[in-house]
Design brief:
Blueprint: E1 4-5, E2 14-16, E3 29-31, H1 39-46, E4 53-64, E5 73-88, E6 94-98, E7 104-105, H2 107-116, H3 126-139, H4 145-156, H5 158-167, E8 182-184, H6 197-206, E9 218-221, H7 243-254, E10 259-262, H8 269-282
Antiparallel strand pairs: 1-5, 2-8, 3-6, 4-5, 4-8, 5-6, 5-7, 9-10
Length: about 300
């Protein structure tokens, strides 16, 4: 849903918002009739056919190879998204009213974050960093909001911000480059984020399955240990961990033979696995890592 064919700017799925540069993140936001939305999206707004849309910004380009083996195509992806309601005034201007909830990173940014195996920040993952990034961008002075968001992202994740910045050159060959801010039409059959995976994941995380909620993660420990690998010990600070990760690492070593760690993309599972491997090595424990993920 969040990966959009960059050359198709007269789409029913999405549209650029030309000339739209919000000054802040709080909303509501207004853009004049000259914003030049795609005709299908503007017709949809005028007819009130969709109750909500998704406002997206901090976009990047990526080459994507279709599953059918066709020629790779350039796609445009928002890093930051928020559900909005849209009203059309008599002069053709649009008002975007933020709905309940807040800004979130798109699922594709979480996936990119995991693929990069980022451990460069003192915060454990995108979830921890998001409020700080929004605050820093909101308090910034000068430049566009897009610039301030990118600078704020670079404070925590320089490689991620650099990748977004460098991707902009890919759009240079397009006859018409998309604007910095875009509007997405929700998938039919589901509001907002389609199947709303982010909220479903949040609901799962909030369930205290283990009796000891771990914030962005759930740790499901197995039955009493069949064998012992020694007394429980705190995880060594070989990689920066937040409190839920620290607790998860200690529980993995304290409750063999099986522990299951659940968390949505970006919450720091890969960083935790790296810490477990290093701690096992430091404590003289034989470790085997198996993964179906080539990046891992």
């Amino acid at each position: 849903m969040f990966s959009l064919f960059a050359a198709d700017q007269n789409s029913e799925r999405w549209t650029s918002i030309a000339g739209f540069e919000p000054s802040g993140l709080a909303g509501p936001w207004y853009t004049g009739a000259e914003s030049n939305l795609s005709k299908p999206i503007r017709d949809c707004v005028a007819a009130a056919e969709a109750g909500t849309f998704i406002l997206g910004g901090l976009c990047w380009y990526a080459w994507v190879k279709p599953a059918d083996g066709a020629t790779p195509r350039l796609e445009y992806r928002p890093a930051l998204v928020r559900e909005v309601a849209i009203s059309l005034d008599e002069d053709g201007g649009l008002t975007f009213d933020p709905l309940q909830g807040g800004w979130d990173f798109s699922p594709l940014l979480y996936q990119w974050f995991e693929n990069l195996q980022l451990v460069e920040s003192q915060v454990a993952g995108l979830d921890d960093a998001l409020p700080k990034i929004l605050e820093k961008a909101g308090l910034g002075i000068g430049g566009t909001l897009e610039d301030r968001l990118l600078d704020a992202l670079a404070t925590f994740f320089p490689r991620l911000a650099e990748g977004i910045g460098k991707s902009k050159s890919l759009g240079a060959k397009l006859v018409k480059q998309p604007a910095n801010w875009i509007l997405l039409r929700p998938s039919q059959g589901g509001p907002g984020f389609g199947v709303n995976l982010i909220r479903d994941s949040n609901a799962l995380i909030e369930r205290d399955i283990s009796g000891d909620g771990a914030g962005g993660m759930l740790v499901l420990s197995g039955p009493p240990p069949i064998h012992s690998i020694g007394a429980a010990r705190p995880a060594l600070p070989l990689i920066a961990l937040n409190k839920p990760q620290q607790e998860a690492a200690e529980r993995v070593f304290a409750f063999p033979p099986v522990s299951v760690i659940i968390g949505r993309p970006g919450c720091g599972k890969s960083q935790l696995v790296s810490s477990l491997l290093l701690n096992g090595f430091a404590h003289g424990i034989s470790m085997l890592l198996a993964s179906t993920n080539n990046q891992a």
